[in-house]
TrEMBL record:
Cited InterPro entries: Aldolase_TIM, Class_II_FBP_aldolase, FBA_II
Positions bound to Zn(2+) 1: H84, H182, H210
Protein name as catalogued: Ketose-bisphosphate aldolase
Residues annotated for Zn(2+) 2 binding in this entry: D105, E135
Superkingdom to which the source organism belongs: Bacteria
Cofactor list: Zn(2+)
Source organism (scientific name): Streptomyces griseicoloratus
Matches recorded under Pfam families: F_bP_aldolase (PF01116)
Keywords on record: Metal-binding, Zinc
CC cofactor note: Binds 2 Zn(2+) ions per subunit. One is catalytic and the other provides a structural contribution.
GO term, biological process aspect, one: carbohydrate metabolic process
Annotated catalytic residues: D83
Length: 285
């Protein structure tokens, strides 16, 4: 069934667990995330990023309609989240498209501007009944920038600043920079667990880890134990899909039917989803 991101995240936080949120780009991503979650009986978030909307010729609705339909028919609770939104016009499409939550990303702006833009987005979102996540202390590697060194001093969220930001912006959850970086293709990130402990002790909203594809299993499990309640995963699905398709086409140079390789790509993504849920969702089996 279709549920809300707010309830899944709150339930996870109360259980000292995390809900996993997977970025979907194609119908196969949507089907794989739902199948993977069903295979381990875990709730899941389907998230669509502004970059994915751009890839879909700038149109949110075709993919959103597919995600809503998949969620409604799923055997596990599934929520829809709009991810890394920078454009106000996209933000405003969220409620009608079936999304219960948005991540409003003004993290590239200086603090005061990030706060003002986020506060305005949060006021609008709350008036619509949406749950809103924001980011402070930019997690690098977005939009093709080279991934930041996981220990780069710039890529960290300051606890005192975060406390003021959450209070003044009224957001429901905060994405924190604790050593992960977007779009990593190796699982080599080392997280700053001391900082995470400090942040989770200081803040009373759920914390979100971005760039989780680059975080090894043991580090992910430690991050959840340390207070991360939502784990965002994108690149890991693309690695799984592309790798499986590449292998299939190399072994079957005569293949023509797109269903043949999309099937193996979808199955590989579903296995990745199940594996990550097994690490971060401490309420499953
Ligand atoms: O918001 C999306 C996530 O932060 C995805 O990051 O592609 O590095 O896993 P990733
Ligand atoms: Zn992200």
């Amino acid at each position: 069934p279709l549920v809300t991101t707010g309830e899944l995240t709150a339930r996870a936080a109360a259980a000292r667990s995390a809900v996993a949120a997977f970025n979907v780009i194609t119908l196969e991503h949507i089907e794989a995330v739902v199948a993977g979650a069903e295979s381990v009986h875990a709730p899941v978030v389907l998230q669509v990023s502004e970059n994915a909307v751009r890839f879909r010729y700038g149109r949110l609705l075709p993919l959103a309609r597919a995600a809503v339909a998949a969620a409604e028919r799923a055997a596990v609770p599934v929520a829809l989240h709009l991810d890394h939104v920078r454009s106000d016009s996209l933000l405003r499409q969220a409620p009608d498209a079936g999304f219960s939550s948005v991540m409003y990303d003004a993290s590239r702006l200086p603090y005061a501007d990030n706060l003002a833009a986020t506060r305005a987005a949060a006021d609008w979102a709350h008036a619509q009944g949406l749950w809103i996540e924001a980011e402070l202390g930019e997690v690098g590697g977005k939009n093709g920038e080279p991934p930041l060194d996981a220990h780069a001093p710039g890529a960290r969220t300051d606890p005192a600043e975060a406390r003021a930001f959450v209070a003044d912006s009224a957001v429901d959850a905060l994405a924190v920079a604790v050593g992960s970086s977007h779009a990593m293709t190796t699982r080599t990130a080392a997280l700053d667990h001391e900082l995470l402990k400090e942040l989770s002790g200081t803040l009373d909203v759920p914390l979100v880890l971005h760039g989780s594809s680059g975080v090894p299993d043991d580090e992910l499990a430690a991050a959840v134990a340390g207070g991360i309640a939502k784990v965002n995963v994108g690149t890991a699905l693309n690695i799984a899909m592309t790798g499986a398709i590449r292998e299939y086409l190399a072994a079957h140079p005569e293949a023509v039917d797109s269903r043949s390789y999309l099937t193996v790509g979808r199955e590989a993504m579903a296995r990745t989803v199940a594996g990550i849920l097994g690490v971060v969702d401490r309420t499953t089996s």
